Protein 1
Amino acid sequence: MCIKYKLLLAIVVLTLQSTALAADPNMIAVYWMDAGEGNRVWDYSGNERNGTMNGAVSWSGAGKIGGCLEFSGGTVEIRNNVDDLTFGNADRSFTAWLKTTANNQCFFSKVTSGLGNNYALGVGRDGATEGVFSMTYRNQANMDSQAVINDGEWRHVAFTQAYQEADGKELWTVYIDGAFDAEQLTNITSDNGQGGMFIG
């Protein structure tokens, strides 16, 4: 997924709308990333979208809140219960704490069978300002934050997509460290959902 870089990542929350930490049809997954041992990353949403660590990924006690995962080129792969997850034409939100000095690297992606990375969140991208938070959706739309987030400090990033049924468009909004950063109106097509999710 990503070439070698160093990223500390803790607490990834993916939702439709709800943010409750219980089994909920509106919750996609919650990863505290603080188990500290083994090769499994547990989903605390109750939806059993657990991940498996592959490659250069290790546990660290130096998280923002407790432990975290340190990525140096590996990934966490999530294949269970993800085929029904689509991105376009739906409300979505993503939040995470991350700490990195990398650029042009993804830290979360959803792969769709036959299409490659259907959507990806990362630090920078081809053609973007170095070190910004970037969202890319299957070459149909891109969005970048104003703030630089690869300064080696813990940064909280949040991305929301609000589907506007009246015109079929999606409003993307980015928040960095709890403050509004940028927004963009997009018009993307829905994917077929089949594939997997990757962290790192």
Protein 2
Amino acid sequence: MLVVPSIPDPCGMPTAALGVAMRLSLGCPSFLAALSIACIAGAAGAAVMNSAPFASLVPSAERIFRGSCVAANPVVVHVAGARIPATEYTFQVSDPIAGCATGNLVFRQVGRPGGGPMDLGALVGLPTYVPGREYVLLLVPPSRAGLCSPAGAGAGAFQIVAGDRVVALRAGVAATAEAEVGPAAHVTSTGTALTSVVVPDRYDALRRALRGGGR
């Protein structure tokens, strides 16, 4: 079984990261408003996650799929007068589990393609995705700003590695070669420990869980 971090804050933002974001927003009400709107996409999936089973992620997801990331293009989203860095991801869906079909699927997520410790996407607990790699994503409905995110922030995103194993993504950084040898300890980009949810660590078992998780 695989242990996946969950994030109890309604925006998927750990307490330490929330403090950093609030400091960034001081003297800039439009940034604070934009930050709030940008977080809306992850709110439904991030709530009540302290001790919830993995199946609790599924009902909040609008689209669930396995697919390869084929493009990650930086974009700017205008929200409440602020310019929010975001990434437009294109995925080639190979296994549409719920809410989508095979073929290209495009969504926008707050944060730059490379992430990083001070990136807004990292601050709200979101992972990034690398073109050429394969993932399983549980995406909640887009926010009013057109931004999307995995259910439970980073808890609803996984990478597929050798042997069809499932590796949880870390917030704010794309999975690297360490994923090929096994999952690392999961902390946020600010070093804050996360509560955990246990999920299957093989794709066939994960797929069965997703099919039966509240749908």
Protein 3
Amino acid sequence: MKTIQFSFTPVLGAVLALLGSLPAQGTIIFSTGDPPATASTIQFNDPGAVTAGFTVSGFPSFSTEAWTLFDFTGLELLNTPASGASRVEADDGGFTSLQLQAHEAVFEGISFNLQLVTNTLSDGLTVEVTTLSGATFFHDYGSNVLGNGANRFYIFTDSPLTEFIRTVQINTTTELADVRQIALVGLVPEPSSLVLIGAGLALLAFKSRHSLRRHMDRSVQPDNRSV
């Protein structure tokens, strides 16, 4: 059975997002290279992961973030090989489009490594990001940015705790062999999910206080039985 732990830090971040993200003026930084050491890698070997279909899903490696699935959706059938690095491939050997999105969650940054089927000088990469505040950011990395080596890309918000990434759309002009080493930074619940969680906790607290009050009322009632 998968053990899931919950940390107060994501909840705090989501509260701040709920209070301040809608008017956020942050932007998205499109860079290359490795993510921070605090990044949580997506894994596909845990119970509940979806390893084949037009959408495949994995869990963040950190136990404090493993309360949500992370989806990869393509225009063709995908799979996640059981051996080697955690990665997403196409059944027919190559793909050019992939959308990345967490279940009822948003994040501050994402990193991934793109591998081409065949290295060419005409390859191209574009990435489109939608954010919690409803903004859309588009970046063209240009030609000859990919190759059969370590092609790490790191995309992140410049306003942590006030602006978050909701979806990432990757498009290439030549076929990708796989997307691997996917890692997240600053994963938090969607504010709408947090509201539901808060409502549930409030209901439990109300029921607990009501039950305690009834117990106390019974304990102070006089004993009118005859001696």
